Amino acid sequence: MQKLKVGIIGAGRGGSALLETLKDFDNIQVVGIADIERKAPGMKIAGQRGIRCFDSAEKLLRESQLDVVFEVTGDDGLVKELRSMIPESTTLVESRAVNIMLTIIRERKELLEIKEIKEQLSIILNSAQEGIQMVDRNGIIKYVNQGYTRITGIPAEQRIGTNVFDVSPDGALVEVLRTGKPCLGKRNRAVGSNAEVISNASPIVVNGKMTGAVVVFQDISEIIHLTEELRRSTSVINGLKDEIKKLSEGQGKFEDIVCQSQKMKNIINLAQKAAREDTTILITGESGTGKEIFANAIHAESPRNGKPFIKVNCAAIPENLLESELFGYEAGAFTGAGKLKLGKFELASGGTIFLDEIGDMSPVLQAKLLRVIQGQEIERIGGTHPIKIDVRIISATNRDLVDLIRRGRFREDLYFRLNVINIHIPPLRERKEDIPALTDLYINFFNRKFYKNVKGVTNKARDMLMSYNWPGNVRELANILERTILMADGEWITEELLIPYFEQFKGREKARGGILPLEEMEKRMIKKALEEYGTSVEGKRKASEALKISLATLYNKLKKYGIRI
Ligand SMILES: Nc1ncnc2c1ncn2[C@@H]1O[C@H](COP(=O)(O)OP(=O)(O)OP(=O)(O)O)[C@@H](O)[C@H]1O
């Protein structure tokens, strides 16, 4: 590109400004500058830029062939002189024209800067998540950003030019235009959309006069939604807290244990006394006899009531996990042990730990548990120091621990430690007097659960319940009643409704090789004899003869088995 060769005459303020301005033009080459004053500011600038300096206009003109000469001395005499000196091919620009040119260039430059700032501002305003809207003092909308359209769904071109007094008469902008004061934290619904917004609006004041107003608003629909979620979650958490509290307090009291039999009354009496002492208790009994409900009741009636009641089912947790469940672990104790985990013993601090199915605990853990009981302290896996604990231990099992000890499966020393007080709960078949009361309890319970109105069981159905062997104890009774109540159409549980379950259990008995407990066999024979001879006094006499027992023994057995006639 051929550059325009330029010379400047005059290195004062004008010359310096010209030098500054021309440096931005790539197609202009300032060849030289001339001034009689060697110390003129423009001479110094030119020297620094490698532009040649002359002490007279003639020398500059003589030295090089110039396309344009700028005269910025303001000396009219010099202009005339120059006209005669410069060749025709060179253009002379006089200082007045130079001033106009410089002003135009400066303004253009400022305009370009303003344009750049405007573009930057536009990017900033559009990248804001908030909606922004600006009006003049008459309420005419001059600007909305992209956030505005995103929140309201209204395109900018539809909004700009309208009057805010018409389109949003209740909004924050109108308030600012009316009062001249900021309007902060105004909550309303964005016009034209369902968005809930919160707005902050302020007047725009230029030279002490309000020229318009600007509003910045946030879409809080999401916040409202999240707050609602949070409220719901908090109520769930509170519910769970209540549940945990209930669990801690135990889910059963002695009043909840239904009992009519003298056997059970004696046991409850013993358990109540034991509850008040802070001793270790072992509860034994077949599955489903109520060991857990007793453990709960003991905790509830003990001085530890209100403190945690923590249950651990030793049979349900794999052996390798049970240790960490019971004693916890330190962070990083093993691969996967990210955070510190408290064990059940620590969680039960001050309260009771209920070790259910203790007979299924592995020998290794039995040894560890024994050390805990002896030392009254535990050590977390990966821990470096023992931690003192204050926990009452209630354990339970449906297994014969004495037999397990004989077979080397259970530590005798641990057995003695756990079995300071033994509470043995007899199977349901040994306390059949409890069956009617338990039946009533579950009828009430399941009536409420299933919105039923079962009044009770028929006599025949009651006989069935009384004569059954109940290998699954109270839990089995509860299960059968739950299912029959669910199936019952009428107000009474009949024999027909029960038969399927007893058939099922008979099948199970057959599967065991048709062997029945002797008592069950005896009961069935008595019932059969009565069906044969009838239930009158004469019928009973004949039945007793057929059974080869006295009439008095028959009456005793009828009572024992709860057979109603
Ligand atoms: N005397 C009772 N009064 C009221 N409910 C009882 C009674 N005995 C047992 N139950 C109820 O019967 C169900 C079984 O009892 P529980 O779970 O306490 O038995 P368990 O002996 O601990 O059984 P497992 O050995 O299988 O753990 C529970 O719902 C319990 O509330």
Automatic annotation (TrEMBL):
This is HTH-type transcriptional regulatory protein TyrR. Keywords: Aromatic hydrocarbons catabolism, ATP-binding, DNA-binding, Nucleotide-binding, Transcription, Transcription regulation. The keyword Acyltransferase does not apply. Residues 257-486 form the Sigma-54 factor interaction domain. PANTHER family: TRANSCRIPTIONAL REGULATORY PROTEIN. Residues 117-165 form the PAS domain. It comes from Biomaibacter acetigenes. Pfam families: AAA_lid_14 (PF25601), GFO_IDH_MocA (PF01408), HTH_50 (PF18024), PAS (PF00989), Sigma54_activat (PF00158). One of its GO terms (molecular function) is DNA binding. One of its GO terms (biological process) is regulation of DNA-templated transcription.
